Amino acid sequence: VQLQASGGGLAQAGGSLRLSCAASGRAFSSLRMGWFRQAPGKEREFVAAIIWSDVNTYYADSVKGRFTISRDNAKNTAYLQMNSLKPEDTAVYYCAATLSIERLSRESIYPYWGRGTQVTVSS
Predict the structure, then answer these.
(1) What is the Cα gyration radius of the chain?
(2) pLDDT at 52
């Protein structure tokens, strides 16, 4: 499975960005998708995950109500819509994929990772 993340950039506090993660190499519908982020000097942390549809989504408390994960199975792409951005959202964002449906907030269950995309939020 190959994952390609895109859509990062610079935003002002209160603004929005949408990240995309294009997948190839395996039936996309069989993959559970996750987003993680790593801020400078910090460990990588879970942001959001989605199983099949928008019904089965999971979020870190720090982004709940501001970020929305979704997927378009016809386009083999997952998305992370980020609204009401804060400077503390500044990080490199990674998309990841797994066949597991459990413990989706844990990095260790994701065997497939894309290269990160930088998100910078200015105050």
Answers:
(1) 13
(2) 82
30 φ, ψ (degrees, to nearest 5):
-85, -10
Residue pointed to by tokens 């065997």: 111
- Residue of higher predicted confidence among 30 and 26: 30
Angular region, 54: left φ>0, alpha ψ -120 to 50, beta rest: alpha
Mean pLDDT of 7-31: 95
What CA–CA distance (Å, rounded) separates 85 from 19? 13
Nearest CA among 73, 66, 24, 77 for reference residue 52: 73
Q: Are 20 and 5 in contact (CB under 8 A)?
A: yes
Q: Which of 118, 120, 123, 122 is nearest to 5 (CA)?
A: 118
